[in-house]
Amino acid sequence: MAHIVTSVLENRPVAQDYYELRMAWPSWAPAPLPGQFLTVRTVDGPVPLLRRPFAFSGFDRADSAASIIYQRRGHATTLMTAKRPFDPFDILAPLGNGFPDPKPGRRPILIAGGIGMGPMLFLAERLAQTPYPGVLIIGARSAQYLPRVVLSRSVQTILCTDDGSAGRKGSAVDVAREEIRHEGCAPELYLCGPHGMLAAGHALAEELDAPAWVAMEQTMGCAVGACMGCVVRVHGGEEYARVCMEGPVFDSRTIVWT
Fold this sequence. Notes:
- By secondary structure, the chain is α/β, with parallel strands linked by helices.
- It folds into three domains: 2-95, Translation factors (Elongation Factor Tu (Ef-tu), domain 3); 99-215, Rossmann fold; 217-258, Dihydroorotate dehydrogenase B (pyrk subunit), domain 3, CATH 2.10.240.
- It contains four helices and 15 strands.
- The protein has helices spanning 75-80, 117-127, 172-183, 195-208, and strands at residues 2-15, 18-24, 37-41, 52-60, 65-71, 88-95, 107-113, 135-140, 156-161, 168-169, 187-192, 212-215, 231-233, 240-242, 249-251.
- The strands form three sheets. A seven-stranded mixed beta sheet has the order 10-9-8-7-11-12-15, with helices on both faces.
């Protein structure tokens, strides 16, 4: 983890209430991995007091740039929408643990919902540069919430919406099930999105006897493991795990979903 005071390169809307912010990345700073996150100090004053966590949605060492996709939800994220090129950007990064590589012989199936699209876009681009590219499935309630971002042509992408207004009709997990049956592959699932979607993805993995990795979304206080404000219930010796430290990426079998 490093404290980085960098600058905004671009901050643009990519869907209704969703924005992509690109920031300069210093050469001395550790490179983020898909699944890791940063925390932002949105203003110099005392309100809002706490830093806000956001997952990385991309990183390019050659361009010295990293990016996040965030949703305008409250006061802090509304303030972020006003950021312009050259504005200072105070972050702690990279934080948490990223996604593991797929197991040999497994087909990576990446499933994104809502704000969970950011880490999945990052992972899809990274896997596209390896011998085991995956298929990226992005789900949203309707067309206006699907991201307008440019992906490399090597990233196979399937869009779906709950109301059928764009792409396939249905949830991202249902579309993933259809795609796996169509391909007849041995899948490995990667998911980020709402809790219900992650639970459904875990159930699908159990049904298919496939590994699944989930990036958990939790409200965070300190994001460095001290406050215990982001814990989730897990199986095993410890009853709880900190999303900011032991996560945010977990083997779905370790999470208590009920």
